[in-house]
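Minimal example, chain plus iron/sulfur cluster.
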Amino acid sequence: MSTELSAGSAVDVTSLIIELQSAGLRVEAPVESRRGGAGPSDSGMLWIEGIPATVPLQTGPTQTDDARSSPYVLKAEDDGQGIYRDGIKLASVAASHRPRFYDMTTADGVPYWKIALLHLDSLASTVLQTCNYWGNSDQCRFCGIGVSLDSGNTIAKKTPAQLAEVAVAARDLDGAVDATLTTGSTRAPDRGALYVAECGRAVKEASGLPVEVQFEPPHDLAVLDRVHGAGVDAVGIHVESFDPAVLAHVAPGKFRTGIETYFRTWERAVELFGAGRVSTYVILGMGEDPDLTIAACKRAVEIGVYPFVVPLRPVAGSLMEEVAPPTAEYTERVYRKVAGYLTERGIGADTAVAGCVRCQACSGINGLQNELSGGKPLLQIGSRPAGLS
Ligand code: SF4
């Protein structure tokens, strides 16, 4: 991607978001962020020109490390914030406020923010903050599920009743539009799917919000019927990488499960939930073969699965915390291919109904899919404001 940013030029928002998700954003203004949690997680959560985006924040030592210091800076403005490069404003960012439900506490004394967080407009929770892979040789190298538990920022197990209570408050006080519930993997044959589905049922019944639940492939595919019977709207079953050599190294437990097991599980899930309501994370930047990755994404799309392609988000405390995200050029190349397949198959953020694919903040793929459909929001790059360097 060539993003020549200068006064008077135009850049599309998607290109800027893809660039930020690779280069990161130095922050000189307060921003809502997420640390730890299952999967690839650490990020700042921003509305950039009205489009949701999570981007790696540089608030600490990387700011003094020239090689990794981002040229993009978030600065406070009178009404919200702005993203600048070389003193030139590129985009406006809506002011972020601490969600109001964070100030509430359950009857048994647990703060709501320890039960679920608001990710832009999606309520998100890791219902079981433990994973049978964590802390041993099977631990997924990009994951931070144990980090937030150790920090005391969450509780190990959230109950369906707690989650339902928080979901209603998040909907009413802060405008949450859906709920995304994930879980660490368990040793039980269902791998934790039934518990997260039970939590999803409680959230949906109490709040009416669409719900996505995420889990590892259960040993018996009949578990998927019970997940579907819980009334949740969408499922995420995350292979993380289609490159077997990479998977063996970064997620040995998932490698043992086997990529073909993911495909078999997805096929049954699509029969139950419908095309576009089953998704998998596909993380770029872990050494994978891009052509193999694109081909496997195509195969997934053909059976109705949305491969949610995202750049690696190095999580502090994870085994990959020192690995830099992939370049914007690399991710955009993969996004463009996969976005084309999604468009041909007729699935996208709107068909997902709930969850990571509905939200889209962690990827630039939806912007490119919209672009293929003719919509491309352009930013007019402003002239250098006085007093900014
Ligand atoms: S399966 Fe991997 S990504 Fe998921 S919670 Fe466990 S260690 Fe993290």
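The first helix runs from residue 13 to 23. The mean pLDDT is 88.
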